[in-house]
Amino acid sequence: MLKELVETQLQRALEALDLPEPPAYQLKRSERPEHGDLSTNVAFALAKQAGQAPRRLAEQLAEQLRTQSDSPFESVAVAGAGFVNFKLKHEQIHQVLDRILRYQFEEPDYYYGISHQGEGKAAQVEFVSANPTGPLTLGHGRQAILGDVIARLLENAGYRVTREFYYNNAGRQMRLLGQSVQARYLEELGRPAQFPEEGYHGEYIREIARKIRAEQGDAWAEAATDQFKDYAEAEIFAGIRRTLGRLFRRPADQAFDIYYNESSLYGRGPQRPLATVDLITEWLRAASLAYDKDGAVWFKATASGRPEDRVIVRRSGEPTYRLPDIAYHLDKLARGFDLIIDIFGADHHDTYQDVLAALKGLCQNIPELKQYEPERIRVLIHQFVTLTRGGQQVKMSKRLANYVTIDDLIDELAATVKLEEQTQEAARTPEQLREAFAVNAVRYFFLMRNPDSHLQFDFDLAKAQSKENPVYYVMYAHTRIAAINAEYFTVFTERNTYRDPAAEDLSLLQQPEELALIKQLDALPEVLAEALDQLRPNLVTNYAFELARLFHDFYEQHRVVDASRPELTVARMALLHGIDIVFGRLFGLLGLFAPRYM
Q1: Which domains, and CATH codes, for the chain?
Q2: Composition of the chain by helix, strand, coil, percent to 5
Q3: Shortest CA distance to 475 belongs to which of 573, 588, 597, 578?
Q4: With contact defined as beta carbons under 8 Å apart, do 407 and 380 qualify?
Q5: CA distance 43 to 64
Q6: What pLDDT shows up at residue 510?
Q7: Quick one: CA torsion of 234, 239, 240, 243, rounded to 10 degrees?
């Protein structure tokens, strides 16, 4: 709101001075109070066109802005070589809070910070996409939460969102899974068994084998490996869905909208893609983007600017990952999504670029594909996750079964949660509350770093119930507001001086801490738009933490409920109501449980 107000005033000033339309310039919120509320470099952007020094242009703009009718500025100052700093009148800042409260009161279905950017458009988000060979680990967890929150941000922007999980239940990995379970089953029967050299060693393999023995006895002693593979796949996939349900706070069967099986791309699965891998290979040849060498089929990636060509069909006739990925992404384009977002781990960095290069080449050279636009695909690459305990990194290897699953992490965190008596909430049992707090910690910690950066999950910090734990710090701001609300109703009802917060006089909010809070509330729509544009949910957690910090600073310096000053109390309660509206939006977008007590 405030930024748009300043932009409007700035455009009026440029027109009044008969200055040309400026090229791209910045209008930023000031990080230091002495620089005002906002600052712009527009004079630098205009200097060459206007034929004037930036400082001289900035002084003209500042003078014009000061003298405009109904100026919203308390001051407009020139700094340095030509920056223009704006300090807004308090009444303009108060209007931000007034609008948030009025929207909430007059339009209950309106959500502050919502946008219409994607209205009428469809978006697909593909994430997790783990093959059913084992439970979800920390790396999967980071990707799952990134995808879930990006999908929520898309919905907040008006998109119709499809959450999609792509998996492969065939190939060498699945054969090893079947052989591993079969070997453990035979061991359970006390029979000779040869465990595969590169098999899966996790305890979950033994658990599946024990379950088969409990159900079938020794009836499967001569069964084929595929029978064990199919059984294990069903068990593991059911576990994956349950884990995702915990992370997403949804029923397990609603974690994703679509589970897309790679076998469909070979003409064998439930989906009917635009093209199978065989047809993709034919099209690549027709576009001079595929050739034979050393008994294999190669994608001529260098023709599309990539550093080296890649094998897409091995000498054995088995495709590499790139070929079905090309077919799958072409199918995504054919399904009519306006925006497609892939979320991959860092090990996909080269693969996805080759896939996009192949798609562009096909859509440019194959007539029936020219209607499709690979530019609609955006890829988010996230770095890996490590776990630390006591300041030491926990070494993990999925193949050797010394790894931590998402369920392990949630369970262990839940076991550390200490609930005071007043923490009990009518709709939840103590076990459900511990789970809720644990999932909050997992989600927040997976989100609070830029996806481009390595994530170190500090278990000791995540379990701490103190202000040093960032998610606890944010939740505590919300529960503090709930406690102040309870105090407000008690004090003012008893004294017969209770006032409806709709009757507040916001002009009483003059303290720097109060104004800083309102300005932070004003930034929410901008932050949500930027987080979606950059695919960086950590911008939302950063915002939530800063809002909590500003609130705690305000609370520690100013008394809110004061029976001797009812008008100021009502105004401050209105401010807290606005803050809580925004916390409600943040908790919803981040998928966090909002506790009433801590």
Answers
A1: 2-88 (3.30.1360.70), 122-169+254-382 (3.40.50.620), 172-249 (no CATH), 466-590 (1.10.730.10)
A2: 55, 15, 30
A3: 597
A4: no
A5: 13
A6: 97
A7: 160
**Interatomic CA distance for residues 382 and 359, integer angstroms:** 22
Q: What is the DSSP letter of 263?
A: G
| Chain position carrying tokens 């680990």 | 137
Residue 271 · residue 264 · CB < 8 Å: yes
Say how far apart CA 329 and CA 260 lie, in whole Å. Answer: 12
In single-letter form, the type of residue at position 157 comes to A
Q: pLDDT value at position 228? A: 98
Question: Which of 304, 300, 282, 283 is closest to 291 using CA atoms?
Answer: 300
Name the residue among 227, 52, 249 with its Cα closest to residue 148. 249
The tokens describing 117, both together, are 């950017």
0.85 cut: is pTM over it?
A: yes
d(CA 441, CA 413): 8
β-sheet with 38-40: strand ranges across: 27-29, 38-40, 83-88, 73-79
Query: Residue with structure tokens 């967890």?
Result: 141
Amino acid at 37: D
Burial class of residue 484 in the structure, from the number of CB atoms within 10 Å of its CB (0-12 exposed, 13-18 middle, 19+ buried): middle
Strand order from edge to edge, sheet including 455-458: 392-394, 385-389, 455-458
pLDDT beneath 50: ranges in the chain: none
- Which three-class secondary structure state does DSSP give residue 396? coil
Q: What is the DSSP string of 334-377?
A: HTT-SEEEEEEEGGGHHHHHHHHHHHHHHHHH-GGGTT--GGGE
Q: Which residues lie across from 162 on neighbouring strands? A: 124
> What pLDDT, on a 0 to 100 scale, did the predictor assign at position 213?
97
Separation between Cα atoms, residue 589 and residue 356, nearest integer Å = 30
pLDDT at residue 500, as a whole number: 60
Laid out side by side, the sheet with 122-126 consists of 258-261, 160-167, 122-126, 339-345, 377-382
Q: Can you tell me which residue has the tokens 């949660």?
A: 417
